[in-house]
Write a structure and sequence with these properties.
The protein is of the alpha/beta class. The protein has one domain (about 30-160): Vaccinia Virus protein VP39 (Rossmann fold), CATH 3.40.50.150. Helices cover about 35% and strands about 20% of the residues. The chain has a five-stranded mixed beta sheet, sandwiched between helices. It has a two-stranded antiparallel ribbon with strand order 2-3. Helix 4 (about 105-115) links the parallel strand 4 and strand 5. The longest helix has 16 residues, at about 30-45.
Amino acid sequence: MIHDAASIDTHPELAVERGGHGLGVGRWVPEEKHFYLKRYIDATREARKKFKRRVFIDPFCGPGRIQVVGESGTRDGGSVAAYRQSIASSAAFTSMLVGDIDGERVQANAQRLAALGASVQAFTGPAMQTVDAMVNAVPYSLSSITVVRFGSWMVPETYPGHV
């Protein structure tokens, strides 16, 4: 599993998530949310390797870069960290479907992912409206689909086949 080293931002001119108060996101984001997401992606690598298509869906992607409270630098956001981990685990996602209610933020995320070599599709709008379009963008052949849900706790899920 890759650790949260100071990764270089491929697009430092783009938006960064700094939390609701603008001072940075809580430490729990990299220390818990991203840690467990990367751990899950690493742990499920052998199952995902069995599929030609490995799709990651994040309907709440943000700009793909975060700044943590008290830190001067920035770190990868969730979907960027997930993509990097999928590469490090030798089961790279073949398609990244990212969405956000804010068009500028989802485009920033998509540009950061594309700069890393990801095949990415961006969806703008509320998740309740975009998630169906995201799922419909998955090919009707066998695929491994990892969906990141956001709520009181982030729970990734992997679905073999088309859902």
